[in-house]
């Protein structure tokens, strides 16, 4: 589902373009295949299986690098905002957070 931002870049100005962007006929081929007949459920499950094996190595690399700041970019803004009020970005600041990845 990583193709969504690139398929619609620069077209968020009008309601008409947003409606057209929601039509699967206007999506890139890969995005349509991922969406399939199940709304992306199977593709999401496959993607989720690909991610966890890399988490320990990423954590070790961050620990070794000892950054002052870590920015985590995510596409979960739709959990907090809806189409009429999606800001260009949103920042959550924490002194320290211990992430707990989803357990399979």
Given the structure, what is the number of helices?
5
Helix content estimate: 25-40%
Rg, nearest Å: 17 Å
Strand content: under 5%
End-to-end C-alpha gap? 20 Å
Q: What does the largest sheet look like? A: none
Write down the secondary-structure element order: HHHHH
Query: What structural class do you assign from the helix and strand content?
Result: mainly alpha
User: How confident overall, as mean pLDDT?
Assistant: 77
Q: Could you name the ranges where pLDDT drops below 50 across 5 or more consecutive residues?
A: 1-9
Quick one: overall form? extended
Quick one: how many beta strands? 0
Note the topology.
Layout: H1 4-7, H2 15-21, H3 29-35, H4 41-50, H5 55-65
Describe it:
The N terminus is likely disordered. The two termini are 20 Å apart. This protein has five helices and no strands. It has a domain of 63 residues. It has 104 residues and is an all-alpha fold.
Give a short summary of the structure.
The protein is an all-alpha fold and 104 residues long.
Please describe the structure with a list of short key phrases separated by commas or semicolons.
about 100 residues; mainly alpha; 5 helices; about 40% helix; extended; disordered N terminus
